[in-house]
Specification:
By secondary structure, this protein is mainly β. It has no helices and 58 strands. Strand 47 and strand 48 form a beta hairpin. It is elongated, with a radius of gyration of 28 Å.
Length: about 675
């Protein structure tokens, strides 16, 4: 196996129109594995991934990337096109947005489709150029875009009676425009000045009726696909079957020599005589799913969902080269942990009711220089990986929480704690070999589920572990390897037993967020327990659903709930007070006192080296404040920063570097806050 991971330079010297280059203070930590499509121009590939673009030059093997950090929108991308005549790169998005990058690096954003008041989907499925005009294939019509003037033109509703119809791909061939649609292949004279009239389009009949997904020009002929069948379009009303694939065809892509037919697990390559010359199949090492494929010079380039572009020769079916910028396994992370220039990423999940999702995805580790991605390993069957805690005595050793389940009777395939050393799993702790316990379901003895979420080390080297949906839901793993269990059932008031975050305050008390029981607090000295709930004098939380916790320098507990933020002012006195309320942070909003963050769900809270607070919300992006929370230092959202989404999943501060990492539901970016180690502020940065 070879992996082509080359140091990245900036994609362009960007001068942006309506966008901003954030690269002085921001970095992207996106996954570039899911190649949705690519185009090849000269020696260079332009590949579009989830929310970014990368290029690969076959001559010098250089990789470059362009993302929201350099000014792209960060939206979910769906298509890519490069105009050789005008030297412009065009990116189409799920929202209907298009962005045009010219040869000077200027980015022009056009959002007319995005702003259309129509119901249903608007994504750009495909783009084809004719006379400096782009024909955009959308789920409702063909939309014309002038690449020279950078503005939209007509919209062609070509269904019967000018109705909406899904346009999958478009080609212009012999002065005719052909559209592969959900209802068949439509065609018209491309020079007709009145293509807006559906009567000027030839409606599909006979064999041209059906859901045609792709079209491609090859050797001065037009080809199309429907389901598993590969056709030549011989006229505006006839097609000829060339071959049938084992599974449905995803894409057709041609060079001068070959046309590649991509299905899920296979690419078949045909020559100009329409004879098959080679078949590329997924193998054990690269069990890929294909979005597209391309062949030239006895070489196949496979656009995969997991491995970027895979390159292999016609003659060698085993050796593959991965082509993509380094990054994590995927962009939809569930949690991250950052410390001492290390970033760990996990992708499991639990649902809104804190039930397992049975996700078999691995973990990723960035060590400051490069990424290591470890897929799910059946030898250590830890599903639903939801949290990472780094060993304070050995930063090469981590404990990964698994929230898994199993209904087959396989005792090892459950949740628990996956122990990883030097990036490799070394052991998996569950109910069979540790003090962790499984959920029991009456009448179903085969069901096993060890639901571990939040974990943290105390100053004595003990690892505290949440073990949900059992009586002894708090566990302690001592340095000796001994386990202790703690029964918190006396402070549980709601049967919804899900546990989320776990933090340890400066007096050694354990604070645990829950789904429907507020915040649970435990101190082993004296076996003291307390619950903060929504009731006045007993917590005054905005909501029982506690999503995040943080402990600051003054031992205040910052609590993020489903309906806002509160602070418990003195963690050390939590067991001594008869009234133990948390309080909102009140800010002055143009003379009107308001609660900081109002009723927004607060998914994550982090505190940097200067005791500044960072809040990640469910829909409003990121708010950074001074230590008291009353002064706003930063307010980031997808419109004024490289954040690809306003849904913040997790925030982590690496206090050794001052970087603040934001994990969103669409990828990870990092901001250099200019807060140096030990809390010294090295300067001010404004967004």
């Amino acid at each position: 196996m070879k992996k082509l991971f080359i140091l990245l330079s900036l994609f362009f010297n960007l001068i942006l129109l309506g966008q901003t280059d954030f690269s002085d203070n921001w970095e992207d930590f996106y996954s570039y594995n899911n190649v949705k499509d690519f185009v090849k121009v000269g020696t260079k590939f332009y590949a579009v991934v989830d929310n970014a673009v990368f290029t690969y030059d076959t001559e010098n093997q250089e990789l470059e990337k362009l993302s929201s950090v350099q000014g792209l929108s960060g939206e979910t991308a769906t298509s890519i096109y490069f105009s050789e005549a005008l030297e412009k790169l065009v990116i189409g998005y799920q929202t209907g947005l298009i962005e045009v990058v010219d040869n000077d690096g200027k980015i022009t954003l056009s959002n007319d489709i995005q702003r259309l008041s129509i119901t249903g989907e608007k994504q750009i499925n495909d783009m084809t150029e004719f006379n400096s005009k782009l024909f955009l294939a959308t789920p409702f019509a063909i939309v014309v875009y002038d690449l020279e003037k950078l503005q939209f033109g007509d919209t062609f509703f070509i269904g019967a009676g000018s109705s909406e119809i899904v346009i999958n791909q478009i080609e212009v061939f012999q002065e005719m425009i052909f559209a592969a649609t959900e209802s068949g292949i439509f065609s018209a004279d491309v020079n007709n000045p009145n293509l807006i009239d559906f009567n000027n389009w030839t409606q599909p009949q006979g064999d041209l009726i059906g859901d045609f997904k792709t079209m491609e020009l090859f050797n001065n002929k037009l080809f199309a696909s429907r389901d598993v069948n590969f056709y030549e379009v011989t006229s505006t009303n006839s097609i000829q079957l060339i071959a049938a694939m084992p599974t449905a065809i995803n894409d057709l892509k041609a060079s001068e020599e070959f046309i590649a037919i991509a299905s899920n697990k296979q690419a078949q390559i045909f020559n100009v005589s329409l004879m098959p010359v080679v078949v590329a199949n997924a193998i054990n090492q690269y069990d890929y799913l294909l979005n597209t494929a391309y062949a030239e010079n006895q070489t196949i380039f496979l656009g995969t969902t997991e491995f970027g572009i895979l390159q292999r020769s016609f003659s060698d079916s085993v050796t593959h080269t991965e082509i993509h910028p380094q990054g994590p396994l995927a962009n939809d992370s569930f949690s991250i942990t950052a410390q001492n220039n290390n970033l760990w990423v996990v992708y499991g999940a639990y649902d809104d009711a804190f039930g397992p999702t049975s996700s078999e995805r691995g973990y990723s580790h960035f060590n400051g220089e490069g990424w290591t991605n470890i897929p799910y390993n059946s030898a250590y069957p830890a599903r639903d990986l939801v949290h990472v805690t780094i060993d304070p005595d050995n930063e090469n050793k981590v404990y990964i929480s698994s929230y898994g389940q199993n209904n087959s009777g396989n005792l090892s395939a459950t949740g628990g704690l996956l122990i990883v050393e030097n990036n490799a799993p070394t052991s998996f702790l569950n109910h069979t070999n540790s003090g962790l316990e499984s959920v029991s379901i009456p009448g179903n003895p085969l069901y096993k589920s060890v639901r571990v979420s939040g974990t943290a080390f105390d100053n004595l080297g003990n690892l505290w572990v949440t073990n949900s949906f059992i009586d002894n839901r708090l566990k302690k793993l001592e340095p000796s390897g001994a386990w202790r269990s703690f029964d918190l059932s006396s402070i549980i008031t709601n049967f919804a037993f899900g546990l989320s975050d776990l933090k340890i305050d400066r007096t050694g008390s354990i604070w645990i967020g829950t789904r429907r029981n507020g915040v649970l607090v435990y101190n082993e000295a004296g076996d003291r327990k307390r619950a903060l709930v929504t009731e006045a004098t007993k917590g005054s939380l905005p909501d029982f659903n506690t999503r995040s916790l943080a402990v600051d320098r003054n031992n205040r507990i910052w609590i993020g709930t489903k309906k806002g933020l509160v602070v418990y002012p003195n963690a050390g006195g939590i067991f001594d007070e008869s009234i133990f309320d948390a309080f909102p942070v009140i800010i002055d909003d143009d003379g009107i006192p308001k609660r900081l963050l109002g009723d927004q769900p607060v998914n994550s809270i982090a505190i940097d080296g200067a005791d500044n607070k960072w809040f990640g919300t469910d829909t409003g992006g990121v708010l950074g404040t001074n230590p008291s929370g009353r002064e706003t230092l930063f307010n980031f959202n997808k419109d004024n920063s490289p954040l690809p989404s306003n849904k913040i999943v997790k925030i982590q501060v690496d206090k050794s570097t001052g970087k603040v990492f934001f994990a969103t539901d669409k990828g990870i970016v990092a901001f250099n806050s200019n807060v140096a180690p030990f809390g010294d502020e090295s300067g001010e940065v404004y967004a």
